[in-house]
Amino acid sequence: MSKYDLVVRGGSVVDGSGAEAVTADVAVKDGLIVEVGKVSGAGKQEIAADGALVTPGVVDIHTHYDGQATWSSRMSPSSNHGVTTVVMGNCGVGFAPCRDVDHDLLIELMEGVEDIPGAALHEGLSWDWESFPEYMNYLDKRNYDMDIGAQLPHGALRVFVMGQRGADREPATVEDVAEMRKLTAEAITAGALGFSSSRTLNHRSSKGAPTPSLNAEYNELIGIARGLKDANDGVIEMISDFDDLNDEFSTLEAMIKESGRPMSISVAQGINPQGWLTLMNKVDEANAKGLSMSGQVAPRGIGVLMGYGTTLNPFSTRPSYSEVADLPLLERLKALRDPARKAKILAEEPTSGFARLFSMMAGGRKLWDLGDPPNYEPAPEDSIYSLSKAQGLDPWSYVYDLLLENDGTKILYTPFANYADNNLDCCREMILHENTVMGLGDGGAHVGTICDASFATTVLAHWGRDRQRGELIDLPTLVKAQTYNTARAVGLGDRGLLVPGKRADINVIDFEKLKVRSPEMVFDLPNGSPRVQQKADGYLATIVKGQVTYRNAEATEALPGRLIRGSRS
Question: Model pTM?
């Protein structure tokens, strides 16, 4: 008779606590870890992990699977990178609560802010809910390849309470604030892991309208914070432009005080290489006052993927490219190979809507061939500008022809954050900072321009083994950063550690072979809409609640993942 449901034998166990690796077995029964060490009893299923790395499953706290979770059981690409828990509903956007008359508005908001095709959302969303608890009940009936947690999004809440006044960013009345407070408490009680809001002009609907929560006033934010206090649970996730740093931080600190709940804010290096440190100094000061605040950070540059098959390329808005942009890829490539069309496109200027991104590429100095395997820390001498000049070519003519290679599947990369110094030294500082937490991967979002759900693999492979242009980080620290630390940041105390009594969410990894594959376009969204997919090599097994969901990067039939009903789960 087997004593255990599963035993992972003889792996190098990095348990998520920050402790050094030990060779041990991990025994699982009824979805929980029951023994770590020398396990004598047999398992109904056993995995030989000699020479392999054994870690907790990744807990990704910043995703946008709000739509995908309603029509799919697989949260790819996250599930291809050892992720066993995701938290969605970030950046103040989502689909609940929502009245029937506001479906289009919330779709336009998600499409604009998170680059998820409106056609896919219109086709895929069933809208079998109105309130946030009804949305949770809908998700609760579904099975997944990982656990899913949801947050209450400010944009949806504001429109639900205020209608068009909320979408138009009018000030909330006393009655509006009281209703938002009540609905916030209701959502948290129904199992929401927290509340999220956006206060950045970068977030706009597909029609160009700023996000409804952009300039929500102090009394509204405090009212919502009191809703979390009423429920005595949940976390707060915020993103802001911090135009007036001191005033904005004063408001955020007041939200923490009024709610009694932890908060994370998005932090990244911008054009000013040291600017992010100013923000983190404020986070440090808040913690010194006894307020629980963390900076949510990324492990690599945040940027845009560009090619003739993706949403954007350097010629996207030039008139002569726009003439063929909607053709099927093969027909488009044929048209682009016409020397006369190339000459016309290169002679044209990008339109104003594309000027900012074009400027970020800095004449090709901030533009790289991503490569295979992808290189997320490329050197200046490998930039498009440097390579083209070495051949005596115009950078944009060089790019034009480069993107025609490999049947138009070539992808370029321009990082707009975390790469001001042309290296990832700032990311190393962020990962190691005592008041940061890993996040910002946006799994499920920006489907035609990024695939940062692969952050989870980059953390281990790049920072733990491959980095050539600076110092590495030890594996125990890296594992803890995206398992225990992220679970704790959203109140999930039942996972993130390989110790008895915790959830049996486990990765078995061939560390020497671990790598991120090149991104590719697939057409598997509802209505056949495209998205960027990116897989990985080296994951021998991903285990969720004691069941193997992926083996050697291939999905099994097991779907043990469920909706998480609050941090007390």
Answer: 0.97
Give the residue extent of every domain in the chain. 59-300+425-490, 304-417
Give the burial class of 282: count Cβ atoms within 10 A of its Cβ; 0-12 exposed, 13-18 middle, 19 or more buried.
Answer: buried
* Residue 175: partners with Cβ closer than 8 Å, 6 or more residues away: none
CB-based contact 194:234 (threshold 8 Å): yes
Question: Rounded to whole angstroms, how far apart are CA atoms 17 and 30?
Answer: 23
d(CA 42, CA 535): 33
**CA neighbor of 313 nearest in space, from 440, 321, 420:** 321
What's the confidence (pLDDT) of residue 569? 61
Over the stretch 475-501, which tens digit does the pLDDT of each residue have?
A: 999 999 999 999 999 999 999 999 999
Query: What six digits make up the tokens of 172?
Result: 């909330």
Please answer whether residues 28 and 504 qualify as being in contact, where contact means their C-beta atoms are separated by less than 8 angstroms. Answer: yes
**Residues of the chain below pLDDT 50:** none
- In this structure, are residues 303 and 414 in contact, taking their beta carbons and an 8 Å threshold? yes
Longest dimension (CA), the chain: 76
For residue 419, give Cα distances in angstroms to 268, 539, 566: 10, 29, 36
Q: Which residue has the tokens 């560390």?
A: 511
3-class state of residue 272 by DSSP: coil
Q: SS3 of 188, please?
A: helix
Q: How many CA atoms lie within 13 A of 255 on its CB side?
A: 29
- Surface-to-core class of residue 225, CB atoms within 10 Å of its CB (0-12 exposed, 13-18 middle, 19+ buried): buried
d(CA 466, CA 526): 37
Dihedral sign, Cα of residue 123, residue 124, residue 127, residue 131: negative
**What class is the 59-300+425-490 domain?**
alpha beta
Tokens in use for 130? 């109105």
Q: Rounded distance, CA 488 to CA 562, Å?
A: 19
Produce one character per residue of 435-444: b if its CB has 16 or more CB atoms within 10 Å, e if not.
bbbbbbbbbb
HEC letters along 313-379 = CCCCCCHHHHCCCCCCHHHHHHHHCCHHHHHHHHHCCCCHHHHHHHHHCHHHCCCEECCCCCCCCCC
The pair of three-digit structure tokens given for residue 511, joined into one six-digit string: 């560390």
For residue 355, the model assigns a pLDDT of 76
Distance CA 452, CA 168 (A): 31
Angle of helix 174-189 versus helix 154-162 axis, rounded to 10: 130
Which residues touch 491 (CB under 8 Å, ≥6 apart)? 193, 233, 234, 235, 262, 566, 567
Reduced 3-state DSSP string for 429-490: HHHHCCCEEECCCCECCCCCCCCHHHHHHHHHHHHHHHCCCCCCCCHHHHHHHCCHHHHHHC
Nearest-angstrom CA–CA distance, 49 and 39: 13
Q: What is the pLDDT of residue 317?
A: 86
> What are residue 48's DSSP bridge partners?
9
Q: Which residues of 362-383 are buried (b: 16+ CB within 10 A; e: fewer)?
A: eebebbbbbeeebbbbbeeeeb
Q: How many Cβ atoms sit within 10 Å of the Cβ of residue 22?
A: 13
C-beta separation of 453 from 438 below 8 A: no
Residue 393: phi, psi to the nearest 5? -110, 155
